[in-house]
Structure prediction request, 333 residues.
Amino acid sequence: VPVIIFTLLFTKDTNKMIKILMGVNPQVKEEAKKPIRKDNFFDISQTTEKKLKNNHWILWKLLIFILSAGSAVIIFFMLYETDILNGQIEDMVKWNLLAANRLACPIETINYVINAIILSSPSSLNISSLNNISTKEKMLADARLGLAQLANSNEALLKGSDKTKPCYEFDDELDSLNFNSVCVAESSNASDLHESYRCCSISTSIGIFITMVKNIIDDIESSGGNLNHEMLPHVLHLLNNHLFRRLEQTVDRLTAINEEHCKSLESQTVIIFIVGIVVTIILFFAILYFYNKTVSIYHVGMVLTQRLPPNAFISDKRLLNFVLNRKDTQDES
Prediction:
């Protein structure tokens, strides 16, 4: 923008100088043609006033404008792409945190449930009466908190919340892990509890896991400290053989996507940086060439002005103001 402004200002001053010189009295022009040295004779024949050819300068101004606009567009595009990629990376960081929390919560929860079952035993192994930390009530509270965190993390990851966007439709492989069934359950074994969760998606498996653990917590008083609840083997099997591996794959997939986006951001930044350097170099040489031309035009204008006789400055106030770098008044213009 500054280059374009300076170019327009110079063009305006140049046109003003040319207009003033072309408006000089013809007799003064003829007198300015005379050689300064008496022993030097040369003939300058000029029968008609030649019209100024400004196509050359229009092309140069257009070139500088295009290069300046190109630099601005490159900078805007770089900032726009960076903003989009940064937003996606920020979302993936939040999703990765939710996925990691969803991975850890089932392990912690089942650990708290098993500890609560053991601590509910009336045998001498019950250490609840010896301290206030590892008590059955504390383990049950932590287990319920783990289930709540698991449900909240899964809900925020798949459906979004007021702090994060949902990961749905962001990546096909991620959607397949979270929502698609891994196989088709056998209808002949519909009454089998294992068959009900064997082929479920992560989202459904988490819901089944939470329901089973709540069932164990509600019946913990009847366990008598024994790990013989009918749901406990299914919970452990669901977590170890079906759920944990796919939860881990979700975290790995989010990490891989994050790395891909970081590499893409790096590649785009390098490409835009190289293109910006090329455009800047071309613009620099164009401005340098334009500057040399402006200096030569200024020198030519001053040489022509210096050849004018003194009476030309007295009779033409605009010419005098131009040489003295003064503004024209309304009466003089």
Notes: The two ends are 30 Å apart (CA to CA). Confidence is low (pLDDT under 50) at residues 44-52. Residues 231-306 form the longest helix (76 residues). Residues 147 and 211 are 10 Å apart (CA to CA).
